[in-house]
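Private note to self, pasted from the team thread so I don't lose it. Backbone tokens:
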């Protein structure tokens, strides 16, 4: 069986806008999340699902794979479902 992980990501955080791109020790938060998911020996593929090109370019610059979704979703589950 193959296991795929989809990480939903957007820039419109209410309490801290654009937090997904904020660096933690020089690396964007989304890249930290993606790397942690890839550490699992049970996951075969990791994708970031986003409707924002800034996130897409960021993830791809670190070698990650991106699934483009609609820009607006009611929640992360909705975005992952579309992906």
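Design output:
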């Amino acid at each position: 069986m193959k296991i795929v992980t989809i990480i939903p990501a957007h820039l419109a955080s209410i309490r801290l806008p654009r937090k997904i791109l904020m660096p933690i020790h020089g690396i964007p938060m989304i890249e930290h999340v993606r790397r942690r998911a890839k550490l699992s020996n049970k996951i075969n593929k990791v994708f970031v699902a986003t409707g924002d090109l800034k996130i897409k370019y960021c993830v791809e610059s670190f070698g990650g794979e991106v699934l483009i979704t609609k820009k607006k979703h009611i929640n992360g589950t909705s975005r992952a479902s579309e992906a």
